[in-house]
Amino acid sequence: MQIQRDEYFADVVKQKLRALQLAKRRELGSDLHISELLNPRKAYWTRTLGERVTDESIGFFITGEAFHKVVQDAMGIEFAEKKLTLPGIVGTADICGQFLCEIKTSRKWTIPEEPDPNYVNQVTAYQAMADRPEAYIFVIYFTAGRKWDGTKPSTLEMVAWKVELTDQERIDIRQRLLDEAQRLNKALAKKDPLLLQLCADWMCVGIYKNEVQRTCPYYTTCQPEGRYPIETLLKPIEEKKAKTKRVFDGLVSKS
Ligand code: SF4
Q: Whole-angstrom Cα distance, residue 37 to residue 247?
């Protein structure tokens, strides 16, 4: 038997996945999608320069799509999604049985006490649009429990959070969405991205063990204030490491 790694075959499959990912991206109409309002700066560049798919984004696409489909199959595919609208805004919420439920996948090794703020912003936007007081966030942490030193293997953990909103909170969120849509439309008309807030910080650059793993495809064009260039993000990590070393050295010299 002979076995050897075949980069060519892997590339063929990757190209197919890239094409599928692009095909699955929604057509950008005049209505703004909820995901655009949650990360308006990226929406600006996507609408101005066109959709960009990177090699890194294929990995997120595969895991997100695959886990999402399995959960929806289990919960009842016939109710899998619900189209929602506000004037000039559209959204597609996940439905699990009779509940609004955002299904997410996360590569975090540690499960946080509270869900990621981005998940909360998304599900509460859908709650406001559908005028539902309750919704769920269901997250699959597929590398939970892993350790930096490799002493522990990861396990797949599933966690759910229930989110409740008052009537007034839903009214306020609807208004915020309408205001953000107006701002994004104005920025597009005036060709001025600085009218818009930055996206969630992890979307700009992904850093792992002080190495840059991925950057937003619009990073060098956008030059996000306070997060550009990349060295400004690496420096605080270096400083933190140096501080930890100083504390450790101090402890060693005292002992
Ligand atoms: S670089 Fe950051 S702020 Fe700018 S579009 Fe990309 S994710 Fe958004």
A: 43
Pocket test for ligand 1, best of 52, 219, 223 (most atoms within 8 A of CB): 219
Q: What span, in angstroms and rounded, lies between the C-alpha atoms of 170 and 46? A: 28
Q: Using one digit for the tens of pLDDT, what is the confidence trace for 155-197?
A: 888 899 999 999 999 999 999 999 999 999 999 999 999 999 9
Q: Which residues line ligand 1 (CB under 6 A)?
A: 39, 41-42, 45, 198-199, 203-204, 216, 218-219, 222, 224
Contact 96, 71 (CB under 8 A): yes
Domain ranges of the chain: 27-201
Class of domain 27-201: alpha beta
Backbone phi and psi for residue 62, each to the nearest 5 degrees, phi listed first: -60, -50
Q: Output the six-digit token pair for 41.
A: 């700066």
pTM of the model: 0.81
For a mutational test of ligand 1's pocket, the pick from 46, 60, 204, i.e. the residue with the most ligand atoms closer than 8 A to its C-beta, is 204
Size of the chain in residues:
255
